[in-house]
Each structure stands twice: as structure tokens, then as C-alpha cells.
Design brief:
Elements lengths: L2 H32 L14 H32 L4 H12 L3 H34 L7 H32 L4 H24 L6 E3 L3 H14 L6 E4 L10 E4 L6 E5 H4 L4 H16 L2 H23 L3 H5 L8 H16 L3 H22 L2 H14 L8 H7 L5 H11 L2
Parallel strand pairs: 2-4
Antiparallel strand pairs: 1-2, 3-4
Amino acid sequence: MTTSLFTTLFLVALLLGTFTKLWLARRQLRHIRAHRDQVPAAFREKVDLASHQKAADYTCAKTRFSLLSVAFEAALLLAFTLGGGIQLLSDWSLATFDNTLLQGMSIIVAALMIGSILEIPFGLYSTFVIEARFGFNKMTLGLYLLDALKGLLLGTILGLPLLLGVLWLMEKMGSYWWMYVWGVWVSFNLLLLFIYPSFIAPLFNKFQPMQDEATKERIAALLNRCGFTSSGLFVMDGSKRSTHGNAYFTGFGKTKRIVFFDTLLQRLTPAEMDAVLAHELGHFKHRHVMKRIAITFAVSLAFLWLLAQLMQAPWFYQGLGVNSQSTSLALLLFFMTLPVFSFLLQPLSSYYSRKHEFEADTYAAAQTDAHDLASALVKLYQDNAKTLTPDPLYATFYESHPPALERIKHLSETSK
């Protein structure tokens, strides 16, 4: 492949992806506005018009803001690649460091830091303007900055050794370096699954063992019925950051634990709580987490193999505005541009995730009352201001969970 041809392919893919994202966002806005003034018939008994309109306005506000984010991301990528940004970082690192590993790490870390700094205004606006306007944000600026600092320190402690190891393997392990790097990557991710519940998550939130004995006994009976064991039931202080509610499983093996947001417990009845938990247990029963991990690891192996081929091709670097060649530059360019070439495959990932959600709903309906799960879902949609009327095509691309109308319909058919 020639340099000019690859540059053309990159620009076409970037423009196609960017315009598709903008077009989908505009469709979403039009569709939600067209259905703003009427609650869907299936929800009229449980959702009032004011709540429906709040969800519509909240979703529209986030979608409009995403238009700016999409344009910014495309412009930033062009500035880093064809605009010469990465080449400037490469020149700086060569003039500053003699060691090739330090040169590689400095280029990647500098690019990540520049991108993160430039994205700070987007995070601030989303949290303190959009979320606050609709009554969801509970964070103070101090807490926001503290979270950012903790994230930076955590990324430094965990990320820098990983990056150093990856670059060393890429340089020293010959043509099959990608297999060694894959092994390290798999081990690192499995380690994170083990340590996240006990060591990482508590850095950001407090997790208190559930105190209500009646609730604990009821949940223990459900867990026993479903053949699930965990290291405990915990309540997370999600309310100190947001009024959004959720529940989830975390951990791996013996470190599995069940976590409820305190905001969720305040809204659901005992029967609804059981139904939500049964849904999460459905993911466990169908081995959804293990399946996703296996797919992620398989795809990462394929991507590393592809990177091994591209890093030997001068047109790959030159076609993206970089005259130098190195393992670090190949790694950085590959993962910066990968989303550009893979965006149109996103509906496949979303479909797979929605399929799992339907399966978990079916399992929950078999273990508890489907009407309780439907009622809980409606409350969650209300509390999180999740629109009941997303654009179907937009949902196909982006939604990891089925639209509310489809889930309620599915539960109704399941309960018959």
C-alpha cells in the first residue's frame, strides 16, 4: 500500500465516521423532540408527562453536547496525526532522552496527557452544567478534582509499569512479541478483576456491608436458589456524586461481591430489589461476563497481530503524518486510529450486549415476578432520566441495553 492511499483511506474513514456520528445525533434529537409531548401508551400509568419531558430534555442536552465532542475528537486526532503533533512529540523525545524505552514512554505519556488536559472542559461542563441543571450532580469541585488526582495516581502506578513492560517486549521478543504482550495484557486485566473490589473501588467510594437483616435474609435465599455465592452484600455511597441509581456485580472468583447504590435502595420495594438482583444473577448464570472477557481477549490478540504487521510498513507511519518509525509510535498511532476504522462495527457490539440483557431479563422473570422487574425498570428509567423514545437507529449503534419499550414488551411476553 502506498502512503497517499493509506492517508486517503484514513481521511475517508474519519470523515465517514464523524459524519455518521453527527447524523445519528441529529436523528436522535429529532426523534425525541417529536415524541416529547406524549408518554408512550405502555408507560402512561406509571410515568407522568413531566418526568417524560425531563428525560427527553436531559437526553437532548447530552446529545447536543456530544455534537461538539465528536467534532473536537476528530480535530484533535487530525492535529496529532496529519497535523504533525505526534511528529513534534517524537522530535522532542529524541532530543531529550537517549534511552529508546524512555523515548517511547515519553511520547505516549505526553500524548495522553495533552489529550486529557484538552478534554477537561468537556468533563467539567457535563458534570457541573448538564448534570447539575437536571438535578443529578452532587459532586463538589473539590471532590471532582480529588477523583481526578486519584485517577491520575492510579493510572501512573498501574499504567506506567505496564507500558514499560509492553514496550520492552515489543523491542526484545522478536517477530512474535505480540504473543508475549498479549499474555501480559491478559494477566494484567485478570489481576485488575481480582483487586478492583477490595483495593481500587474503595479509593473512590465507601462500601458498607448491608445492615438490614430482613433484606440480607431475603437476598441470601435468592442467591441460594440461583446457586450463587459472593463475598458479601455492600451498599455504595453513590449519592455523594449523583442521584443516579444502579446495582452491579464486581470481582472475580472468590472476590465476587454484590453492590447496591444507596440511591437505588431508597426507591425500590423489596420485591423490585429482588427482581433487579435476579437480573444481575442472570448475567452470572449465562456466563455473560466470562463470554465478554473471552471475546475481548480474542479481539485484542487479533489487534496485536495486526499491529505487528503494520509496524513494519513505512506507509503506516508516513500516511499518518509521522516520518519516524519506532515501536512506541506504532503502538500510539495504532490505538489512536483504531476507533476510526472500527466505528461502523459498533452495532455488532451493541447488539451482543442487548442480547445479554434480554437473556438476563428472561432469567429474572423465571426467578421472580416479571411485573416487579418491569416496575423496577420504569423507576430506574425515571430516576436516571433515560428517554423512553430513543431513535431506533441511534439505539442500534450506541445502546448497550434494549430500549425501555422493547424490554417491557419482552417481560410482558415472558410472563404470559
